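For the sake of transparency, this paper describes our internal protein records without simplification. The record that follows is passed on verbatim for readers who wish to inspect the format:
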Amino acid sequence: MGVVEATKSSSGYAKPPWMFTGSALYQLHLVKAETARALIPKEFRLVEAFGYTLGGFFLAHYDDSPAGIFDELVVIAGIVWNPPTSCAWAARVLVNSHEACFHGRKYIGLPSQVAGFSKRTIAISERSRNKENSFLHKIGFGTAFHNPKDRIDVQVAEIKDSSTTTDFCCISLPTAVLNSRSDSTWMGPIVKMSLPSYSGHTEYNPHLLKYSCQIKCRVRAVTPAKVSGPTTTPLDKHGEELLAHQSFYSVGSEFGELTENDARNRSISVLLSKPVLALEFNFLKMQVEPPIVVAHCSKNIVED
């Protein structure tokens, strides 16, 4: 069933909690509720307003972890109700570590996939940078957002087996992100936070799980990264991706009924949705707590 299943142990992870250090970009998007619902178990009530929920992605580079150095892209389909607060739901997790993929699938209940992450630095002219930041200056936030001279293009491609790769997305972001020691400029205040999440309901872990990530890092707002879909994505006359308009997006699809291709394309649609906020996490220290099984899914999850 793919290259990951050949791995029989996750020796580096040992006993929880599991510790990760590195840097990350956490970007929130406005995601259409109809897109998110098909990726979320029907037991949950989606937190939404005016037909949208908050989704997005978490792109991280870990320079130390139980699986060593690796990159991770977590596609967040949306937010589900978890009284008295809420939890995120990961629609897809891409990592360039077989060990991290195996552990995520078996022990955390994540929809993990092995992927390749290729990065290249793109120089941006002074004129282009000023144009990108003009709106922020007009509303008084230009100086608060970090906008370095160069950008990094991160190309992510899923690896199904040793000979088959499929383009997933390309994320263009400031060079400071993914490099926790990139410069000595102001890197924001030290913040401690807890990010609760639900997981499970996969072929590798059928249980419904809940876990949390305890994070300590320096946080600052940055210009949102630009995301593009696979190079094979058809484009309309305005150059916009047509994923959201194709027939595989049937409203009301139930979790578990999506094909692998449907789930993949919906995840891409989440990435291509409108960004609203981007936060750069530097000097990241993340402690992942062991998940607990949510017994029979409490009615409070779906009811007010």
